[in-house]
Amino acid sequence: MKFALFAFRKEPMCFIHVLLNALQLNKFGYEVKVVLEGESTSLIPELYKEDTPFYTLFKSCLERDLIGGVCKACSMKFGTYEFAKEKGLTILEDMANHAGMAPFIEKGYSIITF
């Protein structure tokens, strides 16, 4: 099975659970992609700071290629678009500059939103 975890919320504990679930699903052999949409795109700079609770989890997700991408429109709105590009994150813009779910569904992913 394949899962795309769409994170919309900025709330740190919610986002930590997105990362934890992605890592656990991957550990159990599932294909997983995390998509940062909406307000969660504002967290991108924090994900790279070693002194945040996100850092180790996000780094593990990056190492396992579990980050599916970042919404272009939302990252632009929250001022993190350039940072995301600099870090080499995939920018998703297939749905009027937003990250659409349809391309993931067409690839066999089940969608889970947070």
Structural write-up:
By secondary structure, the chain is α/β, with parallel strands linked by helices. It has one domain: DsrEFH-like (Hypothetical Protein Ychn, Chain: A, 3-Layer(aba) Sandwich). The chain is built from six helices and five strands. Helix 1 (12-27) packs parallel to helix 3. It starts with a strand and ends with a strand. The model has no long low-confidence stretch (mean pLDDT 97).
> Which percent band covers the strand fraction?
15-25%
Distance N to C terminus: 19 Å
According to CATH, the fold-level topology is Hypothetical Protein Ychn, Chain: A
Based on the structure given, which CATH architecture is correct? 3-Layer(aba) Sandwich
The tally of domains stands at 1
Task: Compute the number of helices.
Answer: 6
Low-confidence stretches: none
Helices and strands, in N-to-C order? EHEHHEHHEHE
Task: From the alpha carbons, calculate the radius of gyration and give it in angstroms.
Answer: 13 Å
Spatially, the strands of the biggest sheet line up as 4-3-2-1-5
Task: Indicate the mean pLDDT.
Answer: 97
Amount of helix: 40-55%
Using the alpha-carbon principal axes, give the shape: globular
Largest sheet features = 5 strands, parallel
Q: Which structural category do the helix and sheet elements fall into?
A: alpha/beta
Report the strand count.
5
CATH class: Alpha Beta
CATH homologous superfamily descriptor? DsrEFH-like
